Amino acid sequence: MRRRHFEALKPVCPRCRVGDGVVVPIALTTVLHEADGDVLEGVLSCTRPECQLEFPIIDGAPILVPDMRGFVSQAMLPLLARDDLSEATEGLIGDCAGPGSAFDTMRQHLSLYAWDHYADLDPQEPAPAEHGPRPGGARASLAAGLSLLGGGIAGPAIDLGCATGRLAFELAARTDDLVLGIDLNVAMIRLARRVLSTGRVDYPRRRVGVVYDRRSFDMAGEAADRIDFWVADVLALPFADAPFGLVAATNLIDCIAAPAALPGVAAGLLRPGGGAVFTTPYDWSPSATAVEGWIGGHSQRGALLGASEPLMTALLTPGAHPQSVEGLRLVGEHPGVSWQLRLHDRATMHYAVHVLAARAEV
Ligand SMILES: C[S@@+](CC[C@H](N)C(=O)[O-])C[C@H]1O[C@@H](n2cnc3c(N)ncnc32)[C@H](O)[C@@H]1O
Would the pTM count as exceeding 0.85? Predict the structure, then answer.
């Protein structure tokens, strides 16, 4: 955790904010390892005597979630995972753990997102075949949203659901200010943090079944010292005021329990005049969101015939829907940017993501 980000963004206790509706600063109470203003291991604590919740900083990433005990118990594997094993030993463990195991799911997620985010930089990555998969879809959808917004980014930027982190580098190239990526997935945040601290991308690229090839290559990330990655829940963020000039939420809204809340979350993070980019394939799944929480994708007897796009547009247009967000106004949309998630050598999911850009009222 970079001290610079901690001091500028002033995180507050997510448990006090979400549970009790009070804003309480967090203090850096223990530093166990630090290098160049980057706390690699330590403890943050809520300063409210009734709470005093402790938040660990592990591998440079603070974990700022309201239910620390529940989170640690479900994220034990990535929290304690080691990164010193050879590809051969990891493969053996992968064979034993088998498909569908927590270990395999972790590697599959890393493979999916690190490939889309970074494979363009990998000298070992084969050139895309004419109809083969192409990485970079998330970056392309962010770029489409930023161009709809027009102009630069004034103030810090936040990437909500940043996964393995490449979009933070894209944002850093477009602002002189700080950039923060947040995600609930510890393994992905760790990969992103490692890119910051080592300048190298290291990820398991799935070939077939439970066979993964280790890929390791340089990422000459410009402005890496202005970027940080934190583990946090977009629905229980550790921020009280509106410190950001830009909020990016690419391919996140159909992954969370309360999709209709996301525009309000973005509005609450933005300074007056700040911009927000939302992209989504509306790939609804009950494992992420109960059907009644989906934005469209059901109730085809209704006026919108079950469509997602007009409902999402209405949520970003004040007064257009009972759940429309106040203080954020849609400024443009793109009907479909290609986003490909490579499952393995012979399978790719190909989405066309709806891109929406909105601005906070001045
Ligand atoms: C479909 S991926 C998109 C990743 C990235 N934004 C991109 O476009 O490549 C969704 C990401 O959101 C994260 N996520 C899901 N629910 C979240 C939550 N409640 N808070 C923070 N991140 C969340 C997942 O861990 C995952 O990395």
Answer: yes
